[in-house]
Design goal:
Length: about 400
């Protein structure tokens, strides 16, 4: 069977080609088509995708804000054609001091140093965008309900749009690997980053994570799946309790379920290494974080956030955070939780000792839906109110 990458590259300008076996149907969306030719190296300190990397580990090399950090409203000068305030519909992605995020009717880019000047650009799109975008190859990719749109990162001009939709407001529906974007939207598709060629895979999923040779997806009605990069199923674990995205690192897949149970699964075989129900953890929607030999589990709608030994699943420490609906962010020696009703707190990664909290009341945050790290700061998505603030 020809490889996925070879098939995507060979398609040229043909609109539709049938292929045998698991690789599925291939096509290119030609409306407004311009190929992407920029370099594909991520800039230092970038947060180019939900969870920070294709494995959704939540890891960062940045440092937290200073204790006296202040908050800036990144949406203050973003208005629609009628002069109405626009809102951030999901977590942003970040590179070079700029945040990219979906707004009503399109996608916007805001520079951290001058948000009062309004957006660097605000590009209207025909398709509703509610999922977290993706940065790659000097472009930003917006996963809509029915299409994936590729825009120039600097100007907002469109390169191409492809028929590969994401039907869920979730922080993990697209990821990039080997010049290919994988899209989970009920079905599973692979899209060539440069040309917009779409390869429909046989797989299924609402969320996804990637490692070097596999795609891991979840569906709330059927469980956890592993596929090779051509969409051939490797294993499946049945469950109707999984809402958050998987995380994958060093040959293990970690998945939380809706009732506070976290499982560690062998990425190659699907064997469950361990599965533990965690007291005080409930209804995790956004996934967890993993770094080194530790797994960091948010409280969800529960009361307690927990750090586990990655090899055994045993609890290393637990802390009363209250509700935490977003994925934790993990640095070299710290972990941060966006505490939905209370503020942003940083804890010592080894001991769980609280280092500092920036209170929601003092900094005038809305209810906190998630964090994105930037150098010496966080972008805070205020989920229920759809606000967006920079704490730095």
């Amino acid at each position: 069977m020809p490889s996925r990458r070879a098939l995507l590259s060979a398609i040229g300008t043909t609109a539709s080609v049938g292929t045998a076996g698991c690789v599925g149907r291939i096509r290119r969306e030609l409306r407004g088509y311009t190929p992407i030719e920029g370099p594909c190296d991520d800039p230092p300190g970038a947060w180019p995708t939900a969870g920070g990397d294709p494995g959704r580990t939540g890891r960062t090399t940045t440092v937290p804000p200073a204790p006296d950090a202040t908050a800036v409203d990144l949406l203050a000068s973003i208005r629609d054609d009628n002069g109405q305030q626009q809102h951030a519909l999901s977590l942003p992605v970040v590179a070079d001091g700029t945040a990219y995020f979906p707004v009503t009717g399109g996608l916007a880019a805001v520079v951290f140093d001058a948000p009062i000047n309004g957006p660097m650009w605000n590009q209207g799109l025909e398709d509703g965008i509610t999922a977290t975008p993706l940065l790659a190859c000097e472009a930003v990719f917006a996963p809509g309900m029915n299409q994936l749109a590729a825009l120039d990162r600097t100007s907002g001009d469109r390169y191409w749009r492809a028929d590969a939709g994401s039907h869920h407001r979730n922080d993990a529906t697209v990821a990039a690997l080997d010049d290919t974007i994988y899209v989970a939207g009920g079905g599973l598709a692979a899209v060539d980053i440069r040309t917009g060629t779409v390869q429909e895979l046989e797989g299924t999923g609402e969320t996804l994570a990637l490692d070097d040779d596999s795609v891991y997806t979840t569906r709330s009605d059927s469980g956890i799946f592993a596929y090779d990069l051509n969409g051939e199923e490797r294993w499946h674990i049945s469950s109707k309790e999984v809402r958050g995205s998987p995380s994958v690192l060093d040959g293990t897949v970690w998945v939380p379920d809706y009732h506070g149970t976290v499982s560690a699964i062998d990425a190659k075989t699907g064997e469950v290494h361990w599965s533990h129900s965690l007291p005080g953890v409930n209804k995790i929607d956004a996934g967890l974080a993993v770094a080194g030999d530790e797994v960091f589990v948010p409280a969800g709608t529960g009361t307690t956030s927990v750090t586990l030994d990655a090899a055994t699943g045993e609890i290393r420490w637990a802390v009363d955070t209250g509700i935490v609906t977003g994925r934790p962010v993990v640095g070299d020696d710290w972990v941060a939780f966006g505490r939905t009703n209370d503020g942003v707190s940083v804890y010592d990664r080894s001991t769980g000792e609280e280092r500092i909290t920036w209170s929601r009341t003092e900094h005038h945050f809305g209810m906190i839906g998630g964090l994105v790290p930037v150098e010496e700061g966080f972008v805070i998505w205020e989920g229920p109110s759809l606000g967006l603030s920079l704490l730095r």
